């Protein structure tokens, strides 16, 4: 049988507060769907689920406030919560999200995958390049060509290229 934990883990309190804030926001959004019109309204199920989330997280938060803060917080935050890999990869994700619209899906996703795989694989550039090319080609074929999902175009004029290919295949010049 395990003994109950008497101290909080590093970042646990902040993370739980953020979860409570996000869950409360989702509850508000669920309420905005249809309010309390009836139990069978469109927002009833989302409101019930998010209310359960808010209640559960509030309960966990109340228990966390009773525990002592962790010892050696800065050292433990660096090793347990924010190791170098997490920080670098977070920066890569933020950079990707910032350039996606400007560069477009194909270029931004290719560079994101290339840098991510290269970083996580420990500097194997050729392998990262191969995986990135294969992944982007597969994702592009499945989502853009088969399912016809509109992806951010950016620098590559995809619509014009696809239209030209379709015209060429149809025998139109």
TrEMBL record:
<dbReference type="InterPro" id="IPR009936">
    <property type="entry name" value="DUF1468"/>
</dbReference>
<keyword id="KW-1133">Transmembrane helix</keyword>
<feature type="domain" description="DUF1468">
    <location>
        <begin position="17"/>
        <end position="152"/>
    </location>
</feature>
<keyword id="KW-0812">Transmembrane</keyword>
<feature type="transmembrane region" description="Helical">
    <location>
        <begin position="42"/>
        <end position="61"/>
    </location>
</feature>
<keyword id="KW-0472">Membrane</keyword>
<feature type="transmembrane region" description="Helical">
    <location>
        <begin position="81"/>
        <end position="99"/>
    </location>
</feature>
<feature type="transmembrane region" description="Helical">
    <location>
        <begin position="128"/>
        <end position="147"/>
    </location>
</feature>
<protein>
    <recommendedName>
        <fullName>DUF1468 domain-containing protein</fullName>
    </recommendedName>
</protein>
<dbReference type="Pfam" id="PF07331">
    <property type="entry name" value="TctB"/>
</dbReference>
């Amino acid at each position: 049988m395990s003994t109950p934990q008497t101290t909080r883990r590093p970042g646990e309190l902040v993370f739980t507060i953020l979860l409570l804030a996000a869950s409360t926001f989702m509850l508000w959004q669920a309420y905005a769907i249809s309010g309390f019109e009836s139990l069978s309204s469109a927002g009833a199920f989302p409101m019930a689920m998010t209310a359960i989330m808010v209640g559960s997280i509030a309960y966990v938060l109340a228990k966390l406030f009773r525990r002592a803060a962790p010892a050696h917080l800065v050292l433990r935050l660096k090793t347990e919560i924010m190791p170098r890999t997490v920080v670098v990869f977070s920066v890569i994700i933020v950079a990707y999200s910032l350039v996606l619209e400007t560069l477009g899906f194909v270029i931004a996703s290719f560079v994101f995958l290339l840098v991510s795989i290269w970083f996580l694989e420990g500097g194997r550039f050729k392998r990262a390049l191969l995986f990135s090319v294969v992944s982007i080609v597969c994702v592009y074929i499945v989502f853009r060509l088969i399912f016809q999902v509109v992806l951010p175009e950016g620098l590559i004029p995809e619509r014009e290229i696809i239209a030209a290919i379709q015209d060429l295949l149809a025998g139109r010049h």
